[in-house]
Every structure is written in C-alpha cells, then in structure tokens.
Design brief:
Helix content is 63%, strand content 6%. It is an alpha/beta fold and 924 residues long. The strands form four sheets. A five-stranded parallel sheet has the order 8-9-10-7-11, with helices on both faces. A three-stranded antiparallel sheet has the order 1-2-3, with no helix packed on it.
Length: 924
C-alpha cells in the first residue's frame, strides 16, 4: 500500500494514488497540526489553539475529540499510523518519509551535507518537487499561518541555494527565465539580483547584466534609501573589468587556495539524526552567538555531533577551521594547557614559531588579533573547564567557537553568553537508525525483538551502540539475539561492551569522569547506584549518604557538572543504565557490604517515614500502622496537607514501587510490607489498581515470612480491597475472609469492621445483595461499638448504595442522608464525595434529574480536589447520563468528553462505552 500524507499544498491523504476522504476543513486542520508535529506530543489545549486560535468556540474540545475519533476511524487501515494518547497529549505515529513536509526537510539536510555538485542539485530538485502549492491551502489559523510562512521562507532559501549550485555547474542559460521571474517577485533581494546578473553575464549579455545592476541600485536607493551590499558591488566591478571568474566546474586549473588552517578530523560516517541539537547549532550560527557549548556524558556523541556540523558548515568559514582535543577527560596525561594550544593555533594561522611570544596572555592577545578579521571556526573538543577554555576564545565577531565538554561550564553561559547544547542519549528511533546504518536494514528487520533489547541494554548511548554494532559487523554469523543475551545481565553488561582497544571501552570512558571527582562526590555517585527508583531528589541522596541535605545538594552539583548524574527535571537526578551499572561495580569494589546495606536501609526508611506522613494526610480515617524509629540523617519532609502529600507521592510513585522490590531483595521484610501500606491509598486514588494489588501480594509474602499476624491481616485486607476494584471478587472474598479471621483472633474491632465493610462490597459486586447488606449492617454495628464515626458514616453510605442497586431508591436516600451530616462534621472529603455520588444516583433513578446533576457536580468537585482521576471520570460519565435524561444533550456531550480525556491515558476499558455515547450524541 503506497501512502502519502501531503501538506505542502492542500492537506490530503493518498493511498495507492487515490485521495482519501479526511473530512471538512477543521478536521483536516487537526490532521495538519499532527502531521507537522509527527512523533511529538501535542496537548489537547495546543491542538485547540493551533486549529482555532483566539476564535475557538466554547465547546472546541468536544469538537476536537470528535475529529480525533473520526480521523482514527478514517485512517485505521494504514499500517504504522496511529494517533496515540500519551501523558496528557496526542502523538501522531507515522513513517515520516510518507509526510511531504518531513521528507522535504530530510532532503534539504542531505543536500546541505552534499554541499555542491550534481548530487546536491538532485536532492534540492527532489525536495522542491514535493511542493504542490501553498502549505495547508484553504486552512486558516494563526499557528498554521506562522508555520506556512516559515515553510515558504525555507522553500525560498532552498530555491536560492539550488540556483547557486546550478550556476556553479555552468547552468546559467537554463536559469535565466527562472531567475527573471524570481527577481520580479522579489525586487529587493540582493542575492537573486546577483544571480541574475551572473547568469546574464555568462550568457554573453554583459550590457544587460550591468543594466540589471543599475536598475536594482536605483530601486534600492529610491524606495529604501540604502546602497547595495559589498558582494553585489564587487560583482559589478568584476563585470566592468571583465574579471568575473568562470563557473568552478569550467575552470581548467584551480587557483592556489589562500593558506588557511583546515584542521577538522574526519567526521564519523555513522552519525545519526540529532535534529534538535543540529537546529540549536544552526540557530547559534544565524544569531552570531560566538560561543556554543555542547555538553553531555562520556560516550554521548558530543565530538561526533560537533564534527558532523562543522564539516557541514565549513563553507561558511572561508578563513579556516581550527581544531584541538583539549584532553580534559582522557585516559592518559593531563588536560592540555591553554599556553600549548595557543602556540599550535598561532603556527596554524601562519605566525612563525620564532614570533610566537612567551606567556599565555601574550599568546592569547596575538591569537585574537590574528582572528580579528577572519571568518573562522574554532572547535575546542573535550574541554576540562571554563578556565582552560577562556584564553582560547577569539575576539572577532565573525568567528564561532564550538566547545564539547563533560563539564557543564556554566560560567561560560553566564559570562561569555555561550549557547548551551545539552546532549542526552539517543531516542529509540535514532538508536535503531544507527544500527540500521551499521548493520543494514535487512539484518535489523529480521530480529526486531533482539534489536529492541540491544537498544534498551545499551541505554541508547551512542558509544555503547557503536561497540555493539562493531561486534555484530565483525561477526556476521552471530544472531543479534545472542548479542542481546550477553547484555541482559546488568552486572556483566559493561564487560560485554568492552571494545578492542581500551580507549573505546564504555567503562574506561566513564572512568575519565569519575577520577575527577572529590572523594565525597565519588562516594555519593557509588551509593546512588543503590537507590531503587528511576530518579532521586536531594533528600533521598542525603539519606543514602548519611549527610546533611545541603551537603548532598553541593555534591549532586559536582556530579551533574561532570555529567555522571543528570538533573533531568528540576530537583530530580538520575544516571542512565550503563552509568548505574558502572556505579554498581564501583560500590561493590570500594564500599563494604555493611556500608551498602546501611545506606540502602537509610534510603528505605526515608521513603517509609515520609510516605507514612503523606498517607496520614490522604486517609486519616485508616487505623495507622506502627513504624520503628528512623535513624539519624533520614530527612523528614514538611508534608502538612493533602495537596503536599499528593504532590510528593506523585513524584515518588515509581520509586515507592521499586523500594518495595528492593526491600524484598535485601530481605528487609518489615519495609517490604509497610511500604505498600503507605502507598495503597495513593494507588487507589490515582487508578493504579493492578499496581496496588501486586504491591499488596508482596506485602502479604513479607508478612508471612515475618509470621506477623497483624501485618498478615492488614495485608490481606488491603489485597482483598484491591481485588474488588480489579473485579476479581472470588479472590477478594478469599483474602477478606482470612483477614476477618486474623482480626477476630487479634480482637481488633476496627479491623473487623473495615473487613466486614469490604466483604459487603465484594458481595454486592457479585450481585449477592442480601449478603452485602448483612455484612454492611454488621460492619455498622462494629463501627459504633468501636466508636469509629468515620467508618460508620462510610458504611451508612454503602448501605444506601446497596439499597439503590436493589431498586429501593427512597431507602437509599434515607441512609445516605443519615451519613451526610456525619461526613460533613468529620470533614472527610473522600467519604463525602462517595456519599454525594450515591445520593446523585438515587435522585437520578427517582427522575429528579436536576438534583441528581447537582449532587454529581458536587461529588465531582471533591474527587477533583482529591486528585482521583478514575473516580472523577466515573462521576463525569454518570453526570452525562443524568444530563442526557434531562434533555441537556450538549451538557452530556461535554461531561462524556471530559471523562474520555481522563480515562484515555489510563487505558481504561470504560473508554469504549463513553466513545459510543459521544458518537450517538454527536450524530443527533
């Protein structure tokens, strides 16, 4: 199936040469925005803004979701195409080479790399042939207009560059008509005027060429009040003197080039993509920034990026390119001194050795003088720090200095205005592309699973991928799955990434950064490998190392400066998998087992005690567990309210799950059952139901190993409640019956009451309404016996819910109304939200739709405050039902749309039913 997505003209989709119906203008605008941002996340708010701008209607989001649904339906048969919902936004997944806009940019990039000659001309021609007219023709919004304007400027620049290449190839006669039309359309463009003059001159029409100059000169002076630039005036003088050089292709002998340094080493033939970073370098060049700082961890491809870009843009620096490896992070020797580097640069610039002065300051002054009138590129590779770099910066405005370093050198950004270009690991698509380039598409396509594992185990680090690819090329008979198997074990991964020659070893490259650290920072780097989660904040780092938080922050700054740790979000620190493996090796060699276990325990205590404080804010009605005292140097965070608790638990969600697993591995079983307890309410509120169940299974196993009856009963209760939410009622009943036995044996009345309450929920969902009511009434009796007013109110609401399901809606109202003042008095928002939800359903079933809708809205506001997206979505769904029953179809559509927006990121099955409601409503 041949698929084409086209926006360089009217927006269209063609399959095997036939146009596909993709809807009206607004729907095509949605597709146009997604195609322009293919592979990148666009939020719903951004889509509304880009499609409608300031003229967005009141229900723009409703229309947007309808358009997205219809586009998915219309394009669902196209292989590899999807509009995926990710993290609060939409990502268009498509082969970018089938989108004319992205193919245009790809071809332009290839043409720029080819630089000159027929290959470059052919690539420019192919790129320009993709244009069918005005981009996004007939579609209108401020964002589309701005992108349209940018694309037309890119097209114009490509046309002008293509004409330069054609003139250099002697194609002046073929260009005359095209250039005449272009200069008429752009009467003040000096470059076009010069191209037309040159074409006329080379066609033997010298007088017309000079007339063209006089006409252009007069127009500039009369209408703008400026003279032509130096280049155009120089061309006129050459024509007057009959000294215009022939096209380079026609020159029989090349003139001896002016002696200029051309020191750039060869660029890597395996360089891949890095579109964003190349764009930053391009922008810095356009803005005449002066200094660009490319930073990243060892093996991230800083030198490859800098050399690739430098070779591509070398023509912009006719006075030379200087290069030096400053050996800031190297296996042998010390970083080069600025004094020695300046001596070498001055000789390259033509200064005789005997005229090179002594002393860094004198040499730097002469170096700046030599470059003052030159248009040169200086590439300072593998720099150590700002002090090494500063004497090597040119003073001239026409020079550009590109620096690569593992050190962030923030002083250069602050004082010299350096443009930062941070380099991270490759994304997944770039990593696969690198393997394809090295191994060939057939070999990669034959083992997609193995390729995915190779990419994952190499942490998408370019150096690691290069080592893997080198082994595969050297051993063509080896299946890629065998190489992936070698990298599977984390402890052996760095061994498998040893290359021939020690300087290519991933381990060795990391060691060059590690040995520059202070002893304290080196210790923290090692201990961070014990941290169980994907990232850590300064408080967790302080707990691991057993130091003050302020000291931990200073050491983290040292680690980020050398890119052994990355502050990927404000206050959140991480290392990629290979650096973690390296740190793990180091801690096992340099730190004792006791030191490692103590550090891990401090870390788990940090998450347990602060998690407990957060849980108390979320569910103060739950009977608390008893914690052992935390050791010294475990920071206690000021978690003072519900929102602070939710914020912290959201940030540490993945880490708390990982901390539980780490506790199991370390046989710290008290932590292994208590960490799931502190996490349980959060997981339920956020809709992470499978994670809640799995963590409670882990807790139960730990409680069994401890032979702790209270821990066992508590874990059984929470596991049973998790199974209820997952719909596994038989499993839920099994665990809840065991929990009830445990609490009865312990004489724990509150535990018995909550378990009875939970049993009633499970029986209700099995449609055993009599048993549900029996357990609920027994739960109510036990709550009153224990004096637990909160759980008594929850149970009254549950009894009302069960009566409602049995069709006894007046009884439902009575019980929920009895619970409401209790809940208002204790101020439990979760209980009040459920109570209002139950009241809303009773009103709805009794035909009181206005009262129902109001209760749903009040319940919705509370669930939103609680940060419970699943319950918020469920309430919106039911609100939509009530509004539709009341005849408010737009209101129902809006409620279901908002519910769908929440449920889609959760991949919840209820989305199918809600989409069906939306389609039925929009069809009215």
């Amino acid at each position: 199936m041949g698929v084409e997505f086209a926006v360089l003209g009217d927006v269209r989709v063609r399959i095997d040469g036939q146009d596909l119906d993709i809807g009206h203008a607004r729907q095509r605008s949605v597709l146009a925005v997604l195609l322009a941002e293919a592979g990148r996340k666009v939020t719903a708010g951004q889509l509304v803004d880009r499609v409608w701008g300031e003229r967005a209607p009141l229900r723009a989001r409703n229309a947007l979701y309808s358009y997205l649904f219809r586009l998915r339906t219309a394009l669902r048969d196209i292989a590899g195409f999807d509009i995926a919902h990710r993290g609060g936004g939409y990502v268009l997944q498509v082969d970018v080479d089938t989108v004319d806009l992205h193919l245009f940019h790809s071809l332009l990039g290839q043409a720029r790399e080819a630089a000159e000659g027929q290959p470059a001309l052919a690539l420019f021609d192919r790129a320009l042939r993709l244009w069918r007219g005005v981009p996004f023709d007939e579609l209108d919004s401020p964002w589309l207009a701005s992108v349209r304007d940018r694309l037309q400027k890119e097209r114009f620049a490509a046309q002008v560059r293509r004409q330069d290449i054609a003139l250099n190839l002697g194609m002046h006669a073929e260009l005359l008509a095209e250039l005449t039309t272009a200069t008429t359309a752009n009467p003040f463009d000096e470059r076009l005027a010069g191209q037309l003059m040159l074409a006329l001159y080379r066609c033997g029409r010298r007088a017309e060429a000079l007339t063209q100059y006089r006409t252009f000169h007069a127009r500039l002076v009369a209408e703008i009040g400026v003279e032509p630039g130096d280049q155009l005036r120089r061309l006129q003088q050459q024509m007057l003197a009959s000294q215009v050089p022939p096209p380079p292709a026609a020159q029989q002998t090349a003139q001896a080039p002016e002696p200029v340094p051309q020191q750039l080493p060869a660029a890597s033939p395996w360089f891949i993509s890095r579109t964003r970073e190349l764009g930053l370098l391009d922008n810095a060049l356009k803005a005449a920034a002066g200094v660009v700082l490319v930073t990243g961890t060892g093996g991230s491809g800083k030198t490859s990026l800098a050399l690739h870009w430098a070779h591509r843009e070398a023509g912009r620096f006719p006075d030379g390119q200087l290069y030096v490896n400053l050996r800031g992070f190297d296996q042998v020797g010390r970083p080069l001194s600025p004094d020695d580097v300046l001596h070498g640069f001055l000789e390259a610039l033509g200064v005789p050795a005997e005229h090179v002065p002594a002393g860094t300051d004198a040499r730097a002054a002469l170096y700046r003088s030599q470059l003052a009138r030159r248009q040169a590129l200086v590439l300072l590779d593998n720099a150590y720090d700002a002090d090494q770099i500063r004497p090597l910066l040119p003073g001239g405005a026409n020079c550009l200095t590109v620096i690569t370093s593992r050190d962030r050198a923030t002083d250069l950004i602050t004082h010299e205005g350096a443009v930062p270009v941070p380099l991270t690991v490759l994304d997944e698509a770039e990593a696969v592309s690198l393997l394809i380039k090295r191994l060939g598409s057939d070999r990669v396509a034959a083992e997609p699973d193995a390729v995915a594992r190779l990419v994952a185990h190499s942490a998408r680090l370019p150096l690691a991928l290069a080592v893997v690819a080198g082994r595969a090329v050297a051993n063509p008979s080896f299946p890629l799955s065998a190489l992936a198997d070698e990298l599977h074990e984390e402890r052996a991964r760095l061994d498998a990434l040893e290359a021939d020659g020690t300087t290519s070893s991933v381990r060795t490259v990391f060691s060059w950064s590690y040995r520059t650290l202070s002893p304290e920072a080196a210790r923290l780097f090692r201990l961070l490998s014990l941290h169980p989660g994907p990232d850590a904040d300064r408080f967790a780092a302080a707990a691991l190392a057993g130091i003050d938080v302020s000291r931990a922050r200073a050491l983290l700054d040292e680690l980020t400066r050398t890119h052994l740790v990355d502050e990927h979000r404000l206050g959140r620190f991480r290392s990629h998998d290979l650096l973690r493996a390296y740190a793990t090796e180091l801690t096992e060699k340099e730190d004792t087992e006791h030191e490692r276990r103590t550090a891990l325990r401090r870390c788990l205590d940090f998450y347990l005690h602060n998690g407990f404080a957060a849980e108390r804010q979320l569910a103060p009605h739950w009977p608390p567990i008893t914690l052992t005292a935390a050791p010294d140097h475990v920071p206690h965070l000021p978690i003072a309210d519900y929102h602070q608790a939710m914020h912290w638990l959201t940030a540490e969600h993945a880490t708390l799950l990982a901390a539980t697993a780490a506790a199991v591995r370390a046989r710290l079983d008290v932590h292994a059952w208590q960490l799931p307890w502190v996490h349980s309410t959060y997981l339920s509120r956020r809709g992470h139901l499978a994670q809640r169940a799995e963590s409670q299974r882990t807790a139960l196993e730990a409680a069994d190993r401890l032979d702790d009856d209270l821990a066992r009963a508590t874990s059984r209760l929470l596991l049973g409640r998790a199974e209820i939410l997952l719909g596994n009622q038989d499993q839920a009943l099994k665990h809840l019956r065991h929990a009830l036995e445990g609490y009865t044996h312990l004489g724990d009345t509150t535990g018995m009451a909550i378990t009875r309450f939970s049993l009633s929920s499970a029986y209700d969902l099995q449609q055993c309404h009599t048993l549900a009511l029996e357990h609920a009434h027994e739960a109510l009796r036990l709550c009153r016996e224990a004096g637990d007013h909160a759980w008594a109110a929850f149970t009254l609401t549950a009894i009302g819910w069960y009566h409602g399901k049995a069709g006894h809606h007046e009884q439902a109202l009575a019980h929920c109304s009895e619970a409401k003042p209790l809940l208002d008095r204790i101020g439990d928002r979760d209980g009040r939200a459920h109570n209002l939800h139950c009241l809303a359903r009773a009103h709805h079933k009794l035909g009181r739709h206005a009262e129902s809708a109001q209760c749903y809205r009040d319940s919705l506001a509370l669930f939103r405050e609680l940060g419970s997206p699943y319950l918020e979505a469920t309430t919106l769904d039911h609100l939509g039902d009530a509004l539709q029953a009341a005849g408010d179809h737009p209101g129902a559509f809006d409620a279901w749309t908002r519910a769908l927006e929440i449920l889609e990121p959760l991949a919840h099955p209820d989305t199918v039913e809600i989409e069906s409601k939306l389609l039925n409503t929009s069809a009215r």
